[in-house]
Design a protein that fits this description.
With 275 residues, the chain is mainly alpha-helical. Helix content is 77%, strand content 0%. The chain has 2 domains: 135 residues, Orthogonal Bundle (Helix Hairpins), CATH 1.10.287; 126 residues, Helix Hairpins (Orthogonal Bundle). One of its GO terms (biological process) is stabilization of membrane potential. InterPro entries: 2pore_dom_K_chnl, K_chnl_dom.
């Protein structure tokens, strides 16, 4: 009877967690829609205003070459914090389309921050007040339910029972291997991939982009895939968003390994006797 009650309790707990995850996904999608509705009109207005100024300048100064003027403006914009493409009225680059807004929402909920208009800042305060605690809770529960059994407990037990390592040493080996895996998957491989697909970037630029993106300080003034098509840029933003969430999950798991990987002497003695 007690086992049945325990099974029912676990089933209900899992269903509640699934509902929380679905509500969180809807919350993120809603945030993306709201930021798109608030920010996109302002971006379009700014784009039209600058394009009108550019067109008027070319009409008043016919001796100025349009191509050279575009290069000059592009160089000036590259050192500006704004990431809005204003050199062509029909430019495909958008900062606040839905995918970009969704990326901003996830970045905001994972405490990375971002730029916004006054209206969006007010909504962002309310949105983050609810969203950040919910996001941290969801990530913690995902780590406890999915990552800890696979990433922490199973490797530790394998090293301890099958390789015969003392539990403390097994935990140390596991922590080192997990650190190497995280650094390789989240820093080294993306760095070489970005270096390969961005001909204008150096290896240091690619490494810097990976570091600042994953360390919650933004993108360091770099905009990856600026010359790509809109579909490729949207895919890239989603991949970066998923990468940031994966990093938070792995850090949660690594933190649990550091806190729980070295058991007390009583627990270790029980494990040694059961071996």
């Amino acid at each position: 009877m007690g086992q049945l009650a325990s099974s029912v309790g676990q089933f209900c707990q899992m269903n509640v967690f699934v509902c929380l995850v679905l509500c969180h996904l809807l919350f993120v999608l809603l945030g993306g829609l709201v930021f798109t509705a608030v920010e996109k009109p302002l971006e379009e207005e700014l784009r039209a205003e600058v394009e009108e100024l550019r067109h008027s300048f070319l009409q008043e100064n016919p001796c100025v070459d349009e191509g050279r003027l575009s290069k000059l403006l592009q160089k000036a914009l590259s050192v500006h914090d704004s990431d809005v493409a204003v050199l062509k009225a029909d430019a495909d680059e958008r900062r606040y389309d839905f995918i970009s807004s969704l990326c901003f929402v996830v970045a905001t909920l994972t405490t990375m921050g971002g730029h916004a208009s006054d209206e969006a800042k007010l909504f962002c305060i309310f949105y983050c007040t609810l969203g950040i605690p919910l996001t941290l809770f969801i990530l913690t529960r995902l780590s406890n339910l999915l990552l800890l059994p696979v990433v922490t407990h199973a490797p530790l037990n394998h090293l301890h029972f099958y390789w015969g390592l003392p539990y403390n040493r097994a935990a140390l080996v596991h922590a080192v291997l997990l650190t190497v895996l995280v650094v390789t998957l989240l820093f080294l491989l993306p760095t070489f991939l970005i270096f390969a697909i961005e001909p204008d970037w150096s290896l240091l630029d690619a490494l810097f982009f990976c570091f600042v993106t994953l360390s919650t300080v933004g993108q360091g003034g770099n905009s990856l895939g600026r010359s790509w098509g809109p579909a490729a840029k949207e895919t890239l933003e989603l991949l970066i968003t998923c990468k940031c969430n994966d990093m938070h999950l792995l850090l949660k798991s690594s933190n649990s390994t550091a806190l729980n990987g070295f058991p007390s002497s009583t627990v270790q003695n029980k494990l040694d006797r059961s071996k």
